[in-house]
Design goal:
With about 110 residues, this protein is an alpha+beta fold. The protein has three helices and four strands, in the order αββααββ. It has a two-stranded antiparallel sheet. Strands 3-4 form a two-stranded antiparallel ribbon. The two termini are about 30 Å apart.
Length: about 110
């Protein structure tokens, strides 16, 4: 984010992957007024959500739910949970995801 800046971060289309709509899309992140949802919001940019597999979305939501289950932090800020568990590099090559692939050469 430091390279892109706050302005470009705000312009990204953030969606809630925890609450899928019946048409297959995701609602915008955030709640308005006294809106209630069945799940805790897990917000990611729409571009990142499109690149995630179904199981990655499911585990990201589960991590968020587990973090929120412990209750709110004392400073009233939301609990954070990693979106991708491995935290490593994921590259796509020839349509297949290769986890942890760290080759720096030329293909």
């Amino acid at each position: 984010m430091a390279k892109k800046g706050l302005r470009s971060w705000v312009k990204e289309n953030w969606v809630d992957i925890a609450n899928k709509k019946p048409d297959g899309s995701y609602p915008k992140c955030g709640r308005s007024g006294g809106e209630k949802r069945k799940n805790y919001p897990k917000c990611v940019p729409a571009a990142k959500a499109a690149g995630m597999s179904k199981s990655q979305k499911r585990t990201a939501v589960a991590r968020k739910k587990k973090a929120e289950a412990g209750g709110r932090r004392a400073d009233k800020k939301p609990n954070r949970a990693k979106t991708l568990a491995h935290g490593g590099l994921v590259q796509r090559r020839a349509g297949a995801a290769i986890k942890g692939f760290d080759f720096k050469g030329v293909f």
